[in-house]
Specification:
Chain A: Residues 1-22 form the signal peptide. Chain A: Keywords: Signal. Chain A: This is Oligopeptide transport system substrate-binding protein. The complex is a heterotrimer of chains A (540), B (329) and C (309). Chain B has helices spanning 5-9, 21-27, 32-35, 47-56, 59-76, 119-155, 157-172, 175-184, 191-202, 204-218, 221-228, 233-269, 281-288, 297-324. Chain B is an all-alpha fold. Chain B is elongated. Chain C has helices at 2-29, 46-56, 62-74, 88-123, 128-142, 145-159, 173-203, 206-213, 218-247, 250-255, 261-270, 274-302. Helix content of chain C is 75%, strand content 0%. The relative contact order of chain C is 0.14. Classes of the chains: A alpha+beta (540), B mainly alpha (329), C mainly alpha (309). The interface between A and C is large, with 71 and 69 residues.
C-alpha cells in the first residue's frame, strides 16, 4: 500500500526530472550562443572554491589568484620571455644602486566603487598587508622594504610601528620604495599579487571585503556563490589598455578536472585551464585546434637531502642517477606530454634561461650513468627513496622514475608516500626526509633568480635539501648585489653552471599547460604562469 | 522493553556494503524452498552438523567455497599463478595495447597498465591484501565485539549501560569517515593499519547482536541449571553462553567480511588505503581511473576480480546463514 | 511513551559528546599543519604563523580547545575555517541542499524499486523471477560503489550520452538521476531482499489463509493484508538508511562533481580543517541519532505488539 503510493511518486519524480533536464539545457545556452563577437558575452572558465579570503595579500593558490588577477591590475606584468611591461604603473625606476624605487602611476584609474586610485592607496594597502596583526600569509613579500621589521617583528616580539618607513608618497600618482638592501630586480617582485592597492572602504570591514572584493582591474566582482561560481563583469570605466572584449567571466567551481572537461566537450564551459590526466591521451583529438599546449614557468625536481646518507655523496652519483632517467619516454607516455624534459634549473619562460645548460647530464644514457655512479663510489645503501604527497597525482611518474633507476643501475628504489602535501611539508621542515623529496617550484616572477636563490642558497629557508656550497652562495650574493638586472642574471647563469657540477637537485621536467576552449569562444591564450588571458577572449 | 534491536542492527556500513541488514532478514524467517532442505527427520543432530548437512548440497555454497579456496591459494602462493613480478614494468609495453585474451595466464593476458606492468600479475598479487584484510578485520571484530556484547548482556546493570553507550558512540561515527580520519594519520599504511582502523569502528554490530543473544540465553534453563550447580561465571560464559550465542554472531561476521573487503577497496580508491609498495586491487583501480578513456580494461579487470571475491563471500555468508538459522528447523 | 522519549534523548547526550570527542581527538592527532600549509612549498613565516594560531585559538591545550568547541557548538557556533576564514556553519549550509536532494532521490529509488523487486521475488519465492532478482541483489552488493559509478558515468554519460555525466547544477533533478541511482544501488539491494523475505514469510501466514478463505480476491489480499504487514521491517530499515545514504555520499559526490557534504568533508579532511570535519561529522551523528529514535518510535506505531513504557 505504502509501496504502491510511493511508486507513483517516483514515476512522477522521474517525469519532473526529465522535464527539468530539458528546460535546463535550453536555459544554459543563453550565455554562450549569443550573436557573433559579442562584447557582452560571458566567458565561462573552470575554477574551484578559493581556499583563502579574497584579499590580494592573502591569496596563495590558483583559484583565488584567478579572481584576484582579474579584479585587480598589477603595477606591471611579464611577457612570454620574462620581460616586463607596465600595466597600472607609468614607470617603475630604480635609483643608481637599486636601493630606492620610484613608482609612477598612470592617470585616470578608478576602483570599481568609483573612487580614484592614488599612490596613498598602494602605500596603505602594503602597510596593512605587511603588519603582523593582520595575519596575511604573503606578508613576507614586503620584507625587502625598509621598516618591515618594525611592523612584522620576529616571533614573540611586538610590532613597534604601524607603517613601514620605506614607503613614502611623493604626490598623488607617485610613491617611493626604499629597500633595506639593494635589489636589482625588485620590479620583478612587484608583479606579484599582493602589490596592489586597496580602496578606502576595505579598512572598514576587511572580512566583508574578502567576500566581495573591490579592485581596479578589468573586471568588477559581482557575485560569489560558494562552491558554485564566481561572477566577474567587465568594468566599464577600466583605464588600462587590456580592456576586456567580452562582457564578463563566470568562474565555475568543479570538484574535479574531469567534470570540467566533460562540460567543455558539450560546450557548457568555455575555457578549461588544465585537462584531467584521464583526458590527456584524448584531448587533442577531441578538441582539434581548440586544444592549447604551451609551457609555463614551473619545474619538477627530485632533491637529495644532505643530512642523511646522501650528505657527502659524490655529485657524480647524482649525475649518474640523472642520466639513468629516461625523461623523453616518461613525459610522453606516463605524463602524456603534460611535461617537457628539463635541460636547465630554470624553465624557458624566465629571463636568464640557458638552453642546454645541463650539458649531457639530462640526456638518457644508461651506460654512462652506471659509470658515473661507479666513479662516484656507488649509491648509498644501494637504495633511493623518493618522498612525495599522494594527493598531487605524482605516483605514476615517481614509479616510472624508480623503475628506470632499478632497471638501469641495479639498485633498490621505493617511494615514501605522504598522504597529503601538509604532511610532506612537515617532514621537509623537520629534516625527516629519507633520501629524496619531490621538489616542485612555480615561478613567483619570471627571473632565473627565483628558481635558484630561494632553493639552493645555504641560508634560503626553502632549501629543504640543506644544500650548502660556498661557491654557489658567493655567486648568488654577487648577483643579488649587482646594480643592474643584466649583471644579476649573468651572475645567476654562472651559478647555474656550478649547480650542474654540485647537483643540489635532479631536474626532471618543466610544466606545460594542457588547456582547451569551447566552440563558443576564440582568441584564447595563456600567460607563463598558467592563467588564461581572460580579457582577450572573444565570445562568438 | 524491547529496544527494537533489529532496526539498530540494520545500521549498515553504508559505503562499504557490509550487509548487516541481512540479520534482519533472518528475523523474518525463510521461505519454503529453503525449509525443504531441512534436516532428515528422526535423527537428532547438533545445530552445526545440521548446518553442514545442509550446506553440502547447496550449489551456491559449493561454488562460492570453491572460488574462495582458489582465492586463498592465490593469496598464499601468488607465484603459482604467474611467473612475472607485479612490480617490474617496462614503459615500452604500452597500456594502449589490447589485451591478448587468448593467451591464458600469460603476463600479457589481460594487458598492461600505465607502468607497463602485467595487469594479470598485479591482480594475482593484489589478492593477498584483500583477503588478509577481510579475514583479519572479521576475526578482530568477532573477538572484540563478542567480548563487549557478552559482558554487557550477561552482567547487565551499570556495566551494560556503560558498554551500550560506548557501543552507541562508536556506532554513531560514520564508518567510512571515521576510518578515513584514522588512516590519514598514518604515514605508511600497511595491511595492519588498515585492519586496525576498520576493526576499531566495525565491532559495534557484533557487540549488539551478541548482547541480544546473550540476554536471551541468560534466562534459559541450562544456564540457570549450570549456575545453580555452582559453576563459575567464566565457565558458564565459555561453556554454555558462548557456544549457544555464537551462531547469529558468526552469520553477521561472515556476511560482513565481504563488506570489509569493499571497505579496503574504497579506502584505497580514495587514496588512503594501503600505501605503496603494497599491491591492492583498490589501489590499482584508483590508478586506472586516469586511463579509463583510452583503456578501460585497466580498470575493469581488477574490478571484476574484486567483485567476484566480494560476491563469493556474500554467497558463502548467505548460505551459512540459511543453514544456521534456527527458525528454519 | 513520553518517558521513553525523554530517556532516549538523555542517552543521546553522552553518545554525541563521546563521538565528537573521538573525532576531535583524531583530527588533532593528524600530522600536517593547515596553517603551515598556507605557505606551500615556501618556508613559513614563523612569527606570522604564531600570530595566526593565537588568533584562532590553536595554541591552546587540546582539552581546552575541545571545551571551547563544545561550548561554541551548544550556542550554535560551529567554528571558523582556517584557510578561508569562513564560518563552518556557512560551509555546511552551502553544501547541504545538494546532498539532501541527492539523498532524497536515492531514497526514492531505494524505496520504490527495492520494494517492487522484493515483492516480485517474494510473491514467487523459489521461482525463476525470485532467483534472478536474488542474484541481481547479490551483484549490486558486491560491485563497489566506485566501480558502478565509473561504469555508469563512462557508458551512460560519456559513451552513449543518455544523461549528463556530471552534475553541473545540483538543483537540476535530471542531472542528479545518475548519481542517485549509483548511491541507491546498495540499499536498493538490501530493501529488495528484506521485502522478499518478509513477503515470502507472511504469504503463508494464518491471516493470509483466513483472508483467502473468507473470499478476498488474491490481489486484494495481497494489497490489504500482505503488504501492510510485510512493510514493517522494510520501513524501519528505510528510516535508518536515510541517514546512511546521507553519510555515504563521499565517493558518489566525488565522481559526479556534486558539491555536497561528502565532498566538503573529504576536502576538509585533506586540508586538515579540523573544525569543519568535526562539525560535519557531528551533524551526521545528530541526524543518525534522531533518525534512529524516530524509527524506533515508528516501529512501535506500526507493530502493535511493541509498546514502550
Amino acid at each position: 500500500m505504502r509501496g504502491a503510493r510511493s511508486a507513483k511518486w517516483v514515476a512522477s519524480a522521474i517525469v519532473v526530472a526529465f522535464a527539468a533536464t530539458a528546460c535546463g539545457s535550453d536555459g544554459d545556452d543563453s550565455g554562450g550562443d549569443a550573436s557573433g563577437g559579442d562584447s557582452a558575452g560571458i566567458v565561462r572558465v573552470d575554477g574551484g572554491e578559493p581556499q583563502n579570503p579574497l584579499i590580494p595579500s592573502d591569496t596563495t593558490e590558483q583559484y583565488g589568484a584567478l579572481v584576484m588577477d582579474n579584479v585587480f591590475s598589477k603595477l606591471l606584468d611579464f611577457d612570454d620571455e620574462g620581460e616586463i611591461y607596465m600595466v597600472a604603473a607609468e614607470s617603475v625606476e630604480p635609483n643608481e644602486d637599486a636601493s630606492v624605487w620610484t613608482v609612477k602611476l598612470k592617470e585616470g584609474w578608478t576602483f570599481h566603487d568609483g573612487t580614484d586610485v592614488t599612490a596613498q592607496h598602494y602605500v596603505n594597502a602594503w602597510n596593512w598587508a605587511a603588519h603582523i596583526d593582520n595575519n596575511q600569509s604573503t606578508s613576507f613579500w614586503f620584507a625587502d622594504i625598509a621598516g618591515y621589521a618594525d611592523v612584522h617583528p620576529e616571533e614573540g616580539e611586538e610590532p613597534t610601528a604601524e607603517e613601514m618607513s620605506g614607503l613614502s608618497v611623493v604626490d598623488d600618482l607617485t610613491f617611493e620604495i626604499e629597500l633595506t638592501n639593494p635589489v636589482s630586480y625588485f620590479d620583478y617582485k612587484l608583479g606579484y599579487t599582493p602589490f596592489t592597492p586597496l580602496p578606502d572602504s576595505f579598512y572598514d570591514d576587511p572580512e566583508a571585503f574578502s567576500q566581495a572584493p573591490i579592485g581596479q582591474g578589468p573586471y568588477a566582482f559581482e557575485e560569489w556563490n560558494h562552491n558554485e561560481s564566481i561572477k566577474l563583469r567587465t568594468y566599464e570605466d577600466y583605464a588600462g589598455e587590456n580592456k576586456p572584449v567580452n562582457g564578463g567571466v563566470d568562474i565555475i567551481a568543479y570538484t574535479g578536472l574531469d567534470a570540467a572537461y566533460q562540460d567543455l566537450l558539450s560546450d557548457n564551459l568555455d575555457v578549461i585551464r588544465q585537462v584531467d590526466p584521464k583526458d590527456l591521451p584524448v584531448y587533442e583529438t577531441d578538441l582539434g585546434d581548440r586544444a592549447v599546449t604551451q609551457p609555463y614557468n614551473g619545474i619538477q625536481t627530485i632533491v637529495p637531502v644532505k643530512y642523511g646518507d646522501w650528505g657527502d655523496v659524490d655529485p657524480k652519483v647524482l649525475q649518474g642517477l640523472s642520466m639513468a632517467i629516461d625523461r623523453e619516454t616518461i613525459t610522453s607516455t606516463v605524463l602524456n606530454g603534460s611535461r617537457t624534459p628539463a635541460d636547465s634549473f630554470a624553465p624557458p619562460g624566465v629571463l636568464g634561461y640557458q638552453e642546454g645548460a645541463s650539458g649531457d647530464i639530462t640526456t638518457y644514457d644508461p651506460e654512462r650513468a652506471r659509470e658515473l655512479v661507479e666513479e662516484g663510489g656507488g649509491v648509498p645503501n644501494n637504495e633511493v627513496v623518493v618522498q612525495f604527497n599522494a594527493d598531487g597525482g605524482h605516483q605514476e611518474w615517481v614509479d616510472a622514475v624508480c623503475n628506470n633507476l632499478i632497471a638501469n643501475l641495479d639498485i633498490e628504489c621505493r617511494s615514501d608516500v605522504k598522504p597529503d602535501f601538509d604532511t610532506d611539508l612537515e617532514a621537509r621542515d623537520a629534516n625527516e626526509v629519507e633520501g629524496f623529496y619531490r621538489g616542485g617550484w612555480l615561478a613567483d616572477y619570471p627571473l632565473n633568480v627565483n628558481f635558484m636563490s630561494e632553493l639552493y642558497h645555504s641560508r634560503a629557508s626553502t632549501n629543504y635539501g640543506r644544500f650548502d656550497n660556498e661557491e654557489v652562495d658567493q655567486l648568488f650574493d654577487e648577483g643579488n648585489q649587482a646594480a643592474s638586472l643584466e649583471e644579476t642574471v649573468a651572475a645567476y647563469q654562472e651559478a647555474e653552471q656550478v649547480l650542474w657540477e654540485t647537483m643540489p637537485a635532479i631536474p626532471l621536467w618543466f610544466q606545460n599547460i594542457n588547456a582547451g576552449y569551447s566552440n563558443n569562444v576564440e582568441n584564447v591564450s595563456f600567460d607563463t604562469s598558467g592563467q588564461p588571458l581572460l580579457t582577450e577572449i572573444t565570445v562568438k | 522493553m524491547p529496544e527494537a534491536e533489529a532496526t539498530n542492527v540494520n545500521k549498515a556500513v553504508r559505503a562499504t556494503g557490509a550487509p548487516e541488514s541481512d540479520v534482519a532478514v533472518t528475523e523474518g524467517g525463510q521461505p519454503a524452498e529453503m525449509a525443504a532442505s531441512g534436516p532428515v527427520p528422526g535423527k537428532p543432530r547438533s545445530l552445526w552438523s545440521d548446518a553442514w548437512h545442509d550446506l553440502r548440497r547447496k550449489p551456491s555454497f559449493l561454488i562460492s567455497a570453491g572460488i574462495i579456496l582458489v582465492l586463498l591459494v592465490m593469496a598464499a602462493w601468488p607465484g603459482l599463478f604467474t611467473s612475472v613480478s607485479p612490480r617490474s614494468g617496462d614503459l615500452t609495453t604500452s597500456y594502449l595495447q589490447k589485451p591478448e585474451l587468448t593467451h591464458f595466464f600469460q603476463p600479457e593476458w589481460l594487458g598492461y597498465n600505465q607502468q607497463g606492468q602485467s595487469i594479470y600479475a598485479r591482480m594475482i598479487y593484489g589478492t593477498r591484501a584483500s583477503i588478509v584484510i577481510g579475514v583479519s578485520v572479521t576475526a578482530l571484530v568477532l573477538v572484540l565485539g563478542s567480548i563487549v556484547g557478552m559482558l554487557a548482556g550477561y552482567f547487565g546493570g551499570w556495566l551494560d549501560a556503560l558498554l551500550s553507550r560506548i557501543t552507541d558512540t562508536f556506532m554513531g561515527i560514520p564508518f567510512m569517515l571515521g576510518a578515513m580520519v584514522v588512516l590519514v594519520s598514518f604515514d605508511t599504511r600497511t595491511t595492519w593499519t588498515v585492519t586496525m582502523a576498520l576493526a576499531f569502528l566495525g565491532w559495534t554490530t557484533i557487540a549488539r547482536v551478541m548482547r541480544g543473544s546473550v540476554i536471551a540465553i541468560k534466562q534459559s534453563d541450562y544456564v540457570m541449571a549450570a549456575r545453580s550447580l555452582g559453576a563459575g561465571t567464566g565457565r558458564i560464559l565459555l561453556r554454555h553462553v558462548l557456544p549457544n550465542a555464537a551462531a547469529p554472531v558468526i552469520v553477521v561476521a561472515m556476511i560482513a567480511l565481504g563488506g570489509y573487503i569493499t571497505a579496503e577497496a574504497v579506502l584505497s580508491f580514495l587514496g588512503i588505503g594501503l600505501s605503496d609498495p603494497a599491491i591492492s586491487w583498490g589501489g590499482d583501480i584508483n590508478r586506472a581511473q586516469d586511463q579509463i578513456r583510452v583503456a578501460p580494461h585497466v580498470l575493469l579487470y581488477p574490478s571484476i576480480l574484486l567483485s567476484i571475491t566480494i560476491l563469493s563471500f556474500l554467497m558463502l555468508g548467505d548460505a551459512v546463514r540459511d543453514a544456521l538459522d534456527p527458525k528454519l528447523r | 511513551m513520553g518517558r521513553y522519549v525523554v530517556r532516549r534523548l538523555l542517552q543521546m547526550i553522552p553518545v554525541f559528546i563521546g563521538a565528537t570527542f573521538i573525532i576531535f581527538m583524531m583530527m588533532y592527532a593528524l600530522p600536517g599543519d593547515p596553517i603551515r600549509a598556507l605557505w606551500g612549498e615556501r618556508a613559513p613565516d614563523e612569527a606570522q604563523m604564531a600570530a595566526m594560531k593565537a588568533d584562532l585559538g590553536l595554541d591552546q591545550p587540546i582539552l581546552k580547545q575541545y571545551w571551547d568547541y563544545l561550548t561554541g557548538l551548544v550556542q550554535g557556533d560551529f567554528g571558523t575555517q582556517i584557510a578561508s576564514r569562513r564560518e563552518v556553519i556557512d560551509v555546511i549550509t552551502d553544501a547541504l541542499p545538494a546532498t539532501v536532494r541527492l539523498t532524497l532521490l536515492a531514497f526514492l529509488f531505494t524505496a520504490c524499486i527495492g520494494i517492487a523487486m522484493g515483492l516480485a521475488a517474494g510473491l514467487r519465492a523459489g521461482g525463476k523471477t525470485d532467483r534472478v532478482i536474488l542474484f541481481i541483489t547479490l551483484l549490486l552488493t558486491s560491485v563497489p560503489v566506485f566501480v558502478i559509478g565509473y561504469l555508469y558515468q563512462t557508458y551512460f554519460g560519456v559513451r552513449w550520452g543518455w544523461v549528463s555525466p556530471n552534475v553541473q547544477d545540483s538543483e537540476n533533478w535530471g542531472q542528479l538521476l545518475l548519481p542517485a541511482i549509483v548511491l541507491a544501488s546498495l540499499s536498493l539491494a538490501y530493501v529488495a531482499r528484506l521485502t522478499r523475505t518478509s513477503v515470502a514469510e507472511n504469504r503463508r501466514s494464518d491471516y493470509m489463509r483466513t483472508a483467502r478463505a473468507k473470499g478476498l480476491s488474491p490481489s486484494r489480499a495481497v494489497r490489504v493484508h500482505l503488504l501492510r504487514n510485510s512493510m514493517i521491517p522494510v520501513i524501519t530499515f528505510l528510516g535508518v538508511d536515510l541517514g546512511n545514504l546521507f553519510a555515504g555520499a563521499i565517493v558518489t559526490e566525488g565522481i559526479f562533481n556534486i558539491h555536497g557534504i561528502g565532498r566538503a568533508v573529504y576536502t576538509a579532511l585533506n586540508s586538515r580543517e579540523g573544525a569543519t570535519v568535526v562539525g560535519i561529522v557531528s551533524f551526521i551523528i545528530l541526524i543518525y541519532l534522531v533518525v534512529t529514535l524516530i524509527v524506533d518510535l515508528l516501529y512501535a506505531v506500526l507493530d502493535p505488539r511493541i509498546r514502550y513504557a
